[in-house]
């Protein structure tokens, strides 16, 4: 039964991480391998006690404690590693809170992980015991900043196989972890979901390979505002620069982005001939729900160079098509032969006239 319980809980955690969302996409399982993690609202000031699966805090002080309870249901003592992570947007277009190194936008002012002064602490909990742990957040400014900072507190159950390297860092070999999302709201009131005005910008655009392995145009879609953006639809089109004919198109629905983060948007280049060097234009229409709903239109030119086209095409077995090059060379050779024939003919005619 214990193994079945672990499997079901781990499966639920995975499904939620990859994109099952609530009104605020912050809920993850809080029970796991014989231990439970819950927020201690009584010892965490400015937190909303009505939210059971996340900490939603209206920040009012530069010193903000976060207090959680670990309830060890096991008959054995347990040791846990407590670490803080900053929310980011995954390649699947959803908000993630895991231990990965996030790609954050340069407009990010506050990084949740850097707020925590006593990060990566260890907590030992005796068998059949509930114990609290405290994280101290040191926030530089609570008055001039207006927006939201998202992150998560991850509780990792350490096992006997976990080892410590020479620098004192823990190398997790086998573990069960629980991520508990935290939303810090600045500005005196809760920041409404999808409140950001004109949040999107297009970063770099370049050819490459998509997640499925095919050729794709890889685009950095930036959320430049300190607010999460939920359930938006994206319609992307590629045309030749200055032309209206759509060459490639991709629609994605119910996407979500963390505050000040980057979504690596992939628009697949679906042609058997591979990349073709040239100048192109990317157009994005992004519809964000709300009352009223908003649609943002973005566009940016980009270039696929001959070397880029050849490089990626070769990797998937597409050889360059030199037919037109051969045709051009043949035409040039033919013109040279005609010119040479004309010159020889004229020379002979002039010679005949002089002899007369």
Automatic annotation (TrEMBL):
A Pfam entry, by short name: WxLIP_PGBD
Transmembrane segments: 323-344
Domain WxL Interacting Protein peptidoglycan binding: from-to ranges: 62-156
InterPro entries assigned to the protein according to its UniProt record, in alphabetical order: WxLIP_HBD, WxLIP_PGBD
Domain WxL Interacting Protein host binding: 169-314
Keyword Secreted among UniProt keywords: no
Transmembrane found in the keyword field: yes
Keywords, sorted A to Z: Membrane, Transmembrane, Transmembrane helix
Protein name (Swiss-Prot/TrEMBL): Cell surface protein
Lineage: Bacteria, Bacillati, Bacillota, Bacilli, Lactobacillales
């Amino acid at each position: 039964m214990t193994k079945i319980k672990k499997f079901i809980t781990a499966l639920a955690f995975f499904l939620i991480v990859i994109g099952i969302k609530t009104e605020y996409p912050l809920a993850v399982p809080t029970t796991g391998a014989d231990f439970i993690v819950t927020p201690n609202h009584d010892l965490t000031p400015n937190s909303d006690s009505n939210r059971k699966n996340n900490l939603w805090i209206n920040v009012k002080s530069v010193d903000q404690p976060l207090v959680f309870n670990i309830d060890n249901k096991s008959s054995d003592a347990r040791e846990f590693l407590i670490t803080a992570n900053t929310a980011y947007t995954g390649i699947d277009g959803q908000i993630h809170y895991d231990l990965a190194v996030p790609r954050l936008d340069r407009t990010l002012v506050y990084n949740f992980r850097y707020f925590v002064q006593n990060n990566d602490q260890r907590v030992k909990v005796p068998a059949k015991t509930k114990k609290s742990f405290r994280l101290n957040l040191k926030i530089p400014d609570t008055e001039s900043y207006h927006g939201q900072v998202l992150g998560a507190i991850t509780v990792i159950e350490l096992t006997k196989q976990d080892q410590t390297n020479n620098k004192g860092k823990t190398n997790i070999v086998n573990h069960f972890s629980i991520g508990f999302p935290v939303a810090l709201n600045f500005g005196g009131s809760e920041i409404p979901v999808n409140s950001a005005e004109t949040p999107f910008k297009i970063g770099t655009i370049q050819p490459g390979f998509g997640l499925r392995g095919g050729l794709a145009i890889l685009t950095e879609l930036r959320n430049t505002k300190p607010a999460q953006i939920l359930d938006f639809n994206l319609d992307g089109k590629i045309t030749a620069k200055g032309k209206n004919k759509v060459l490639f198109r991709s629609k994605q629905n119910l996407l979500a982005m963390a505050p000040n983060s980057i979504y690596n948007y992939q628009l697949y280049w679906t042609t058997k001939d591979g990349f073709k060097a040239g100048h192109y234009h990317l157009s994005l229409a992004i519809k964000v729900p709300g009352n009223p709903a908003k649609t943002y239109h973005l566009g940016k030119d980009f270039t696929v160079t001959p070397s880029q086209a050849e490089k990626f095409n070769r990797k998937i077995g597409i050889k360059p098509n030199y037919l037109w090059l051969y045709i051009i060379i043949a035409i040039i050779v033919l013109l040279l032969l005609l010119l040479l024939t004309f010159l020889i003919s004229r020379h002979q005619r002039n010679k005949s006239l002089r002899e007369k």
